[in-house]
Amino acid sequence: xxxxxxxxxxxxxxxxxxxxxxxxxxxxxxxxxxxxxxxxxxxxxxxxxxxxxxxxxxxxxxxxxxxxxxxxxxxxxxxxxxxxxxxxxxxxxxxxxxxxxxxxxxxxxxxxxxxxxxxxxxxxxxxxxxxxxxxxxxxxxxxxxxxxxxxxxxxxxxxxxxxxxxxxxxxxxxxxxxxxxxxxxxxxxxxxxxxxxxxxxxxxxxxxxxxxxxxxxxxxxxxxxxxxxxxxxxxxxxxxxxxx
Length: 244
Hints:
Layout (H helix, E strand, L loop, with lengths): L3 E5 L17 E5 L6 H12 L2 E4 H14 L7 H8 L3 E6 L2 E6 L11 H11 L2 H17 L2 E5 L2 H5 L5 E6 L2 H11 L6 H20 L12 E4 L5 H14 L4
Parallel strand pairs: 2-6, 2-7, 3-6, 7-8
Antiparallel strand pairs: 1-4, 4-5
Helix pairs in contact: 1-9, 2-4, 2-5, 7-8
């Protein structure tokens, strides 16, 4: 799995539903921002020889594209342009990266402007429908570990394994600042906690596919766990289900 491979996710994905679950295995990892979902999912995917799909990259990519083109969410112009949007997935080793209109935004997806706007974009039904189809298409091609906020509740309701990661908001703030190599002062931590609390409120109160734990998901509190420990717990659950 060392070669880079791109495949189109155009209009042909429409109507796939949960087709991918007929043939491929899916591990769904959900949880609030900075709970460690993506990092753990990527490590689990490598260990099981699955492909990691970060659903948030789709929403961030669409947000980046909208900002780049001066489009405001929920306007007729935005929705019309969204219908013609060309999104591809590029596979590199155990990850799938999102490419839009032949451009890979890269680190720009994690910039402050995209981060501030992504929640509003992610709430739009047309955007969520588009991302849902792309995720189902990915599962029809590979065994995947997919992380997000509604993977086990909406995207892959019949996933082979569902995990819900949580962590204390202060710990999540520390992780987010450490990830960006930011100042760890008390003031910085308070600001990041406030941002995370606001994001949690937006994610849990939105009308479409709010953040919540699936009834059959296994909750893991990662507050006092390191990454290796989190990954091992998920792999142990996967082995119990004979996945991989």
